[in-house]
Specification:
The protein is built from 16 helices and twelve strands. The chain has three domains: 264 residues, Type I PLP-dependent aspartate aminotransferase-like (Major domain) (Aspartate Aminotransferase, domain 2, 3-Layer(aba) Sandwich), CATH 3.40.640; 79 residues, Aspartate Aminotransferase, domain 1 (Alpha-Beta Complex), CATH 3.90.1150; 61 residues, Molybdopterin biosynthesis moea protein, domain 2 (Alpha-Beta Complex), CATH 3.90.105.10. It starts with a helix and ends with a strand. The longest helix is centred in the N-terminal third of the chain and has 17 residues. β9 and β10 form a beta hairpin. α2 runs parallel beside α10. The chain has 438 residues and is an alpha/beta fold.
Length: 438
Amino acid sequence: MNTPICDFCEGYRKAHVSRLHMPGHKGQFFLGFEDLDITEVSGADELYAPEGIIAQSEKNATALFGSGRTLYSTEGSSQCIRAMVKLGLTLSKPAGRGKILAARNAHKAFLYACALVDAEIVWLYPQSGMDLCSCPVTPQALREAIAAHRPDAVYITSPDYLGQLADVAGMAKVCHEAGIPLLVDNAHGAYLHWYNRQHPMDLGADLCCDSAHKTLPVLTGGAYLHLSPTANAAIGAEAKAAMELFGSTSPSYLILQSLDRCNAYLGNGFSEDLNCCARRIAALRKRIPDVSQEPVKVTLDCHCLGYTGPEAAAALRSCLCEPEFVDSRYVVCMFSPQNQEADYIRLEQAIAALPHKEPLCALPSAVTPSPAVMTPRQAIFSSHETIPVTQALGRICGSPTVSCPPAIPITVSGEIITAEAVALYQKYGIHTVSVVKR
């Protein structure tokens, strides 16, 4: 598969042109890659109005993913989520404010997106005892929620931060029976098309975002917004405008080259490498307490080993293993085909070296419903103040205070901070919160 963006940038580098344009480094080395870092010079195309090399590269990605259309983002899935929310409501053509039915473990970028477009959110909460990061929803529960709330779109996260996979196909069927689109935050699952065709685009989602940089060999910030063939036919002409609405007018050509180069790898060699990685992790899982459903993620339930998450993470770091995410119970380790054999061996040895202890019994980090007295938009755009968590009981949440990862709000903007929320903030080591000024 050709790589038009990379080829152009390499040719520009070799031409030794006098760079009388941005960026200010003028191709001179400071970090070592500046000669490939360009702007929208003649022939380089424009990300939000592509007709040349970017258009061709995005067509290559569209063919690889089998979508109706795939667009590039150089600002991660956060940009794609904002555009996806806007486009998803456009698909339903709601009168007035749109209403989105969303699983409660949504990334805070979704909350910001709804605030920006002034969408109403109806939350689907996890079952009692489920973790903050997970919100399993069955197709039947979704069908009942749609009948009760009559939303204009449905939004879910799959895979979630702990590696749990939703029944995307079942939920897509329910949504389509109701005549509304299914939007999927697939930030952690860009690779799933090459693993038994389990990508949301394969399973019937209408719109979907991937953080390419999370699981593919792409620079940080590289992401995709996918439209299904049906969605593309309905809103394809508006997709670039929606991305531009929420994006910088100075996209990174280094990230664009990374996405472009990744196409060649996805088309030749990635599937075999991915399956090798998944087999290696499957062998590792036989010897550790893993709860992930993802083929390339390891989620340690540290309580089964008799440790807290931070205690287990400290042991891993002492063996030169740096995890992706740690909370009071879980340690999440993300793998990709680019991990080396030493990485698997180190993790296995680090876990095996932990002294045997009795399993811990603790309540899960569950999020509970809180009463909303303002819309997210009203709360986010109000004046805020930061106060200690210990003084936040009964106050209205301003900006969502949460660590990233997992970036899942404990209290949503506009909701009252409850005693249960205060306890959860403290459990996650959050000492101050943003609240609406009185």
